[in-house]
TrEMBL record:
NCBIfam families: NrdD, PRK08270.1. This is Anaerobic ribonucleoside-triphosphate reductase. Its EC number is 1.17.4.2. One of its GO terms (cellular component) is anaerobic ribonucleoside-triphosphate reductase complex. InterPro entries: NrdD. It comes from Petrotoga mobilis (strain DSM 10674 / SJ95). One of its GO terms (molecular function) is ribonucleoside-diphosphate reductase activity, thioredoxin disulfide as acceptor.
Length: 630
């Protein structure tokens, strides 16, 4: 069995096998012809070459827009190193791993295969913090090992090291869930004062924001915080130093200390008042959430100032707090049912995640399709290519895991059976404008968008039965794809409709265009039936011009989650940072006190970065945003 046989089988033969146990046989038959085609297509060395000199010079002279494709990276020597190595690996993946049909679809902009520069490893992962607490950090031959942590300071240090190492083995976000619940027993065991707890949390947060991975960027980290002990953990043994000390339900007081310390740290920012971008916190808002309880005002103040948290709706959505731990324990899953990956835009449930993401260019489908039947035929064709690319990638990363290319993943995960293959969309609004002349803000447009999402869900269920692998439908963040695909389409089809007056871009997924309304409830009303059809990576961003009143936010979030079943929501105020005068509410490219240039911060796709570091398409979107009034 080899990769080339798998590629041809997936592309050229009708797949009738629908059980995981039969998948290996299908793979063996699947790629023998592709091996022959691989030799024919790629034996020419020119196909595998790229211009090293040009790649380096374009980065150094900042002539390549991809220098700012990811606003989390920094223009620097490590950034150049990542850009050069990533370009080489992307070239290898497109020419050597994927067959020409898929490579051409990506290169032409019909779809976008994310993270090609990390194309031989998986995309994102949620890790079991309980595993780290029980096992300690290590287990890789020839590398240092640490026993299970006995103290909070040791555990937070292990968390920093663990996520930093795991980030090196994945392309995207790394997540821990129930962080406050699982840290709480260490506070009591160490008999820590609040000041001591805060000191350890500060050290952890600062360390997580130090550029320590490729590209001179910090690890991309998501924490989910329970706020109150979840039902499925209340009677579970609390673990410290490998020993049981009561049950987690006994530690609400210590949880409150952890949450207070974390929020105060994030609220204070760094020495210049600059935001800590990571970890991105996701807070679970349940029906039992005490809106007048301890730390709620602090949570709202942090939200009003920096817009830090994601809020997860357990009040009116179909989500369940215990789902973040259920997948890793499941031996069998109903493949006719689409599962929720859990954890929000960048999070993942314990021991699950995504092997890779492919985004389909809907505006082009809208442009080239003349009838509804043709629209869905073109969509299915692109979905089939996306599925094939993801099946190939799954094979590649499973092989690489078996070869120990990701040694820590092999120790703490062991397999990718519970990782999803992710298919997403971009530009439904522009697709509708090109196809029917009406946008997604219209009733006709939204109804067609709902029909498209339901169709995609049905196809993904078929893929699950066919392959035995998990699939999910995502509103992909598409930070770079939004600009790349619109730019490519304008080159190929000059009269295609895109967003952007000066620079083209596509509206994310099925979102409303950014300049359509100032009323957040109008947005929630419109988005609710769309957001609930995704099974991961979807969130409603409430963009605000500047810092709102914390008390107003509390009322707004409570009302929004009670009335609208959107799974996730953020509050996103714009703010500025002056090197001398620190935090300034609102958008000020020059400090109103000293007149010096500032850094203006907003959420680019799901996390805060300075607007000046965004790519041109996202900067154009920022200019056109109409902020909401709460």
């Amino acid at each position: 069995m080899d990769l080339d046989s798998i590629k041809d089988s997936l592309l050229l033969k009708p797949v009738t096998i629908n059980k995981r146990q039969e998948g290996e046989l299908r793979k063996e038959n699947l790629i023998k012809e592709q091996k022959k085609r691989s030799v024919e297509n790629y034996s020419n060395a020119e196909k595998m070459s790229f211009d090293v000199r040009k790649t380096i010079n374009e980065y150094i002279e900042m002539k390549d827009w991809r220098t700012n494709e990811n606003s989390n990276t920094t223009y620097s020597y490590p950034g150049l190193y990542l850009h050069l190595a990533g370009s080489a690996l992307a070239n290898y993946v497109l020419n050597e791993i994927y067959p020409s049909e898929i490579s051409q679809a990506h290169s032409s902009g019909a779809l976008h295969i994310h993270d090609l520069s990390h194309g031989i490893v998986a995309y994102c992962a949620g890790w079991s913090l309980m595993d780290l607490i029980k096992k300690g950090f290590g287990g890789v031959e020839g590398k240092i090992n640490a026993k299970p942590a006995k103290h909070l300071s040791a555990l937070t240090g292990q968390m920093v090291n663990f996520l930093g190492v795991m980030q090196m083995e994945f392309a995207g976000a790394q997540a821990f869930n129930s962080v406050d619940t699982l840290l709480a027993p260490f506070v009591r065991a160490d008999k820590l004062s609040y000041d001591e707890v805060k000191q350890f949390i500060q050290q952890m947060v600062f360390a997580m924001n130090v550029p320590s991975r490729w590209g001179s960027q910090p690890p991309f980290i998501n924490f989910t915080l329970d706020w109150t002990v979840p039902d499925d953990l209340k009677n579970e043994p609390a673990i410290v130093g490998g020993k049981e000390i009561g049950v987690y339900g006994d530690y609400q007081k210590e949880m409150n200390m952890v949450n207070k310390a974390f929020l105060e740290t994030m609220l204070e920012g760094d020495a210049n008042g600059r935001i800590f971008s990571f970890p991105i916190p996701t807070y679970n808002i349940t029906k039992e959430f005490d809106w007048e309880g301890e730390n709620v005002d602090l949570l709202m103040e942090a939200t009003a100032k920096y817009g830090l948290p994601y809020f997860q709706n357990f009040i009116s959505s179909s989500l369940n707090p215990g789902d973040v731990r259920s997948m890793c324990c499941r031996l069998q899953l109903d493949l006719r049912e689409l599962k929720n990956r859990g954890g929000g835009l960048f999070g993942s449930a314990d021991k699950t995640g995504s092997i890779g993401v492919v985004t389909i260019n809907l505006p082009r489908i809208g442009y080239i399709s003349k009838t509804k039947e043709e629209y869905f035929e073109n969509l299915k064709s692109m979905m089939d290519l996306a599925k094939t690319s993801l099946e190939i990638k799954r094979y590649v990363i499973e092989e690489n895991l078996s070869k120990n290319l990701m040694p820590y993943t092999k120790v703490y995960l062991g397999h990718f059976n519970n990782h999803f293959s992710t298919i997403g969309i971009i530009g439904m609004h522009e697709s509708l404008l090109n196809f029917m002349g009406r946008g997604i803000e219209t009733n006709e447009g939204r109804e067609f968008a709902i029909e498209v999402l339901n169709y995609m869900r049905s196809v993904l269920k078929d893929y699950q039965e066919e392959t035995g692998n998990l699939y999910n439908l995502e509103a992909t963040p598409a930070e770079g794809a939004s600009y790349r695909l619109a730019k490519k389409d304008k080159q190929l089809y000059p009269d295609i409709i895109t967003s952007g007056d000066d620079e083209p871009y596509y509206t994310n997924s099925t979102f409303l265009p950014v300049g359509i309304t100032e009323d957040p409830f109008e947005v929630l009303e419109h988005q609710a039936p769309l957001q609930t059809l995704y099974t991961s990576g979807t969130v409603v961003h409430i963009f605000l011009q500047e810092k709102p009143q914390a008390s107003t936010l509390k009322t707004f979030i409570k009302k929004a989650f009670s009335q609208y079943p959107v799974p996730y929501m953020t509050i996103t105020p714009t703010f500025s940072i002056c090197e001398t005068h620190g935090y300034i509410a609102g958008e000020h490219f020059e400090c109103p006190i000293c007149g010096k240039p500032t850094e203006v911060y907003s959420r680019v796709v799901g996390y805060y970065r300075p607007v000046k570091s965004w790519n041109k398409g996202k900067q154009q979107e920022f200019k056109e945003r109409l902020e909401y009034r709460v």
